[in-house]
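# step 3/5: fold
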Amino acid sequence: MTSTIGLGVPVPKMLRESQMDSHPVASADPIAAVTGAWTLPFTAYLLLLSNRVVYQRVKNKQWIGDKLSSEKNNTGNHENPDPLFLASRCHMNFLENVPLAFLLTAIAELNGANRSMLNYAMAALFALRVGHVEAGLRGKDTLASGRIVGLFGTQGFLAGMAAYTAYLVKGYWGY
């Protein structure tokens, strides 16, 4: 049983007929439950990263830009990194990868992906992104092992999730 939304794209009906009469909003089955469940931890960590940037701005009275005084700190210095630049890069690295990861996960989920597998994948991605910052960029000399593991692990997640999503819709291409 399907219905149409938007420009007439057929989608499965997500409401049970018997429940629609009594509680139409409360009875809706979650369409992307896994993706929705992982929004909380990822958003909480994003807020932590954002607040670290704000803290450096307030502490150093640097209201614009991503570096403190160029004389005081060198952004390329791994032994003594610019704290505002470091906080900004941790924040931006997260924002460069996580939205695409969520998009790929949501598309996979909407196309019938195994929800257990998606949960494990999102848990791994969360650990990789936290490790990239906490055990990598914020580690000794900003070159700790978490940085490499987080980088390549995230790239593996993105490539794997894109491939899995393509596999789920292989029938569209006639395979």
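# step 4/5: annotate
The CA atoms of residues 86 and 142 lie 9 Å apart.
# step 5/5: archive (pending)
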